Amino acid sequence: MKAIWNNTIIAESDATEAIENNHYFPHESIKKEFFKTSKTHSTCPWKGEASYYTIEVDGKQNKDAAWFYPEVSEKAKAIENYVAFWKGVEIKS
Question: What's the domain of life for this entry (predicted)?
């Protein structure tokens, strides 16, 4: 699977986890040069607290377009520290 934004592959992995129509990519599969830590957080009732990244490619930013769970509930262990995308990031196989 590939995550693409602004015509650039920002993550790529054969080991994604699909949950609630989102592909979660292993943290080590993201291209860290495109990811900036955000101060945004949100809470999922069954997964836990999410942290966000702003994606930056060729000077363009996509604020809080990636999220991950640094610590998860027992029910969500499969995606602990995996990264998912939204806000126009394309996921392709």
Answer: Bacteria
